[in-house]
Structure formats: structure tokens, C-alpha cells
């Protein structure tokens, strides 16, 4: 027993040290084409030694969301449906008289702008929704993949959402679809909410359910940018959240014939290989959380947009003194000065 505890402790120490080394080696922040972010967090479930239900970094959902529409049923999230199995975080939707769902999120709720990504394998069982999203004070940025659709589609949404006055359906200003596989000559309107589909031949229907794919969104003031497998898929500008929140991953069904469909006819499993977050923090919760030491690197590290586990390579964006160099950041990012100021100024005043 002592030996097994020692092995777990050493493994956990290695996992924590690897993340700490990355953060300390990039103590001038992390940068990509959309912004500069001061904080880094990653959980790699392919090499995860901890008990997910006791991990202080995570919040495992245990609640019920009441039915939203006639003919649907409540979404009940059971901690038993959240487990790390076979080198992956597994979120289950289990059948029965009352289907049960699975959800997990970051314990911290002070994430305020950032670049967020997860490697996800969706289920092949029709009737569920695999979601990766930001939530804070009823504001959301959502990426949801529906297993009932063939070819598969991922929905991008901002909440609170808008409704189109003429059709009565969700407005394209806050909701859009992304078809993951298509015939090149095919152009059509989405059958569910009548929004134009963004087309991209990224992978087949089977691939979405048999392989991991990177789902990512970048959140900056006034803009949410969505990516699938490193390729930009869409941008939304309306009702973008202006309050901090947490990142969540969930797997659910509610029997909605116009969206999730279901319930599934058998247990369904969504798998997550890793979650990687580059972000700033609300100064209302921690006034020093966005300060950058700039002792090790003296410059921001570039965010790797394809591999969540790789070490970012240095990219000049911060002066040797450790102060943010807006001139070099602008040259690097090709972003308007007003946007850079909106991202950075609240954190360095």
C-alpha cells in the first residue's frame, strides 16, 4: 500500500512539475495572433494519476437543469458519469428511466479572456451533445457537436442569444453551424435552425467519433473566434461575454427533437484527451494574477495552435525590462492598438 501511494505521489509530482516548468519558462506570458495572455493551465488525461473527483482543480457537476421546452426532459448531471478511463476523461450519457449526463469544469471562475482548447472524441451513438464552453453569470461561448447529425456538425453559439424577428429562430448573429464533412458542391441551409453552414472537409463522420480533434475558441473583447483542428471556422461579434467565467466540458441529452434528439438507445461516451487554457484573470478576484515576472524568458512564448502538450517557443513581444512592449506586440500580432489596449490595460493599471 505504501509503495502504491509513493508511486501515485511521484507521478502526481511529475505531472505538476512539468506544468510548473512550462509556466516558469514562459513568465512573460503567452501570445498568439489574437492576444497576449499571462496565465497557463493544462490537464493531460492521457497521463493523469489523480482521482478526478478529488482533484481541487476541477468542479464535477452534480445538479439538474429543468426541461426547457415542451416534450423534452431535464438534464441531470451525475458525478458517476465522470471518470478517467483508458487514458482519457470519459463523460457518459447513460440510459434508463431518467437518462443521466456528465459534466466537469475548472474550479476557478475568474478566467477573463483567453485561448481555450480541448482534444475531444465525440460519440457515435445518436442523440447526445458533446460541448466545450465558457460559462459565467449566464453568459456563454459554446462549441457543441451533435451526434444525431450525419454529416456531423458543430454549433457555435453565444448566450444570451438573439432571435431572428422574421423566422422566430436563433439569429445568425449569435448562432452558427459548422459542417465537419461535406460534398464539395453541396451548399445548403442548416435543417435545424436555418442558418448558413460553414463548410470544411476536415474529416469524415466516422473520424469525429473514432479520432481526437482539437476544438478551440479564442475570447477577446467584442469577439469570439472558433477553430476546429487549428483552422478558423467562424467569428461572432454579438453579445460577447464581458464577465469572467469558468471552462466546462459536458455530454448531455434532453430529447429535444429540434436539437440534441435522443435519448440515445444505448450508453454513449465522449472522451477528452487534454484541456489547455491560456488566459488572463479578473482583477476583481486577484489583483496580481496578471503580473508577469519576465525573469526567465524576458519575452512572451508563442502559443502552439496544434499541439496542446508542446512547449511554446519564444516570440519577441515584451521588452527586456519586463514591461509590456505594445509596439512589438502590435508588430507581432497585427492587431489594432485599441484592441491590444482593451486586452491588456485592465491588468497592468
UniProtKB/TrEMBL annotation:
Outline the extent of the GH16 domain: 43-283
Source organism, top-level taxon: Eukaryota
Keywords recorded for this protein, A-Z: Signal
A family per Pfam: Glyco_hydro_16
Indicate yes or no for the key word Signal.
yes
Query: Per the record's keyword annotation, is rRNA processing included, yes or no?
Result: no
Q: Which PROSITE patterns does this UniProt record tie to the protein?
A: GH16_2 (PS51762)
**Coiled coil ranges:** none
Q: What is the protein's given name?
A: GH16 domain-containing protein
Q: Which organism is this protein's natural source?
A: Umbelopsis vinacea
The record's listing under InterPro entries reads: Beta-glucanase-like, ConA-like_dom_sf
What range does the record give for the signal peptide? 1-19
Q: Which GO terms describe its molecular function?
A: hydrolase activity, hydrolyzing O-glycosyl compounds
One biological process term in Gene Ontology: carbohydrate metabolic process
Amino acid at each position: 500500500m505504501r509503495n502504491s501511494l509513493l508511486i501515485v505521489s511521484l507521478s502526481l509530482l511529475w505531472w505538476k512539475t512539468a506544468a510548473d516548468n512550462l509556466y516558469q519558462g514562459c513568465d512573460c506570458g503567452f501570445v498568439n495572433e489574437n492576444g497576449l495572455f499571462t496565465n497557463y493551465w493544462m490537464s493531460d488525461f492521457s497521463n493523469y494519476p489523480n482521482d478526478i473527483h478529488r482533484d481541487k482543480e476541477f468542479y464535477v457537476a452534480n445538479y439538474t437543469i429543468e426541461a426547457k421546452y415542451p416534450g423534452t426532459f431535464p438534464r441531470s448531471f451525475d458525478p458517476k458519469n465522470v471518470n478517467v478511463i483508458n487514458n482519457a476523461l470519459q463523460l457518459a450519457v447513460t440510459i434508463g428511466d431518467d437518462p443521466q449526463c456528465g459534466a466537469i469544469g475548472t474550479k476557478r471562475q475568474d478566467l477573463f479572456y483567453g485561448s481555450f482548447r480541448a482534444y475531444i472524441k465525440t460519440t457515435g451513438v445518436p442523440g447526445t451533445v458533446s460541448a466545450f464552453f465558457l460559462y459565467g453569470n449566464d453568459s456563454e461561448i459554446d462549441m457543441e457537436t451533435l451526434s444525431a447529425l450525419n454529416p456531423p456538425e458543430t454549433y457555435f453559439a453565444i448566450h444570451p442569444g438573439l432571435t431572428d424577428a422574421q423566422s422566430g429562430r436563433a439569429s445568425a448573429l449569435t448562432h452558427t453551424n459548422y459542417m465537419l464533412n461535406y460534398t464539395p458542391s453541396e451548399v445548403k441551409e442548416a435543417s435545424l435552425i436555418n442558418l448558413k453552414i460553414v463548410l470544411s472537409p476536415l474529416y469524415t463522420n466516422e473520424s469525429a467519433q473514432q479520432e481526437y480533434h482539437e476544438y478551440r475558441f479564442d475570447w477577446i473583447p467584442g469577439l469570439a473566434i472558433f477553430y476546429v483542428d487549428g483552422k478558423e471556422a467562424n467569428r461572432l461579434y454579438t453579445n460577447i461575454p464581458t464577465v469572467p467565467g469558468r471552462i466546462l466540458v459536458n455530454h448531455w441529452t434532453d430529447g429535444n427533437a429540434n436539437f440534441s434528439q435522443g435519448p440515445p438507445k444505448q450508453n454513449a461516451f465522449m472522451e477528452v484527451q487534454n484541456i489547455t487554457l491560456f488566459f488572463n484573470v479578473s482583477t476583481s478576484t486577484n489583483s496580481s494574477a496578471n503580473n508577469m515576472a519576465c525573469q526567465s524568458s524576458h519575452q512572451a512564448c508563442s502559443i502552439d495552435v496544434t499541439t496542446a502538450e508542446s512547449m511554446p517557443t519564444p516570440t519577441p513581444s515584451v521588452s527586456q525590462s519586463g514591461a509590456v512592449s505594445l509596439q512589438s506586440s502590435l508588430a507581432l500580432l497585427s492587431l489594432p492598438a485599441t484592441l491590444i489596449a482593451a486586452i491588456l490595460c485592465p491588468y497592468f493599471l
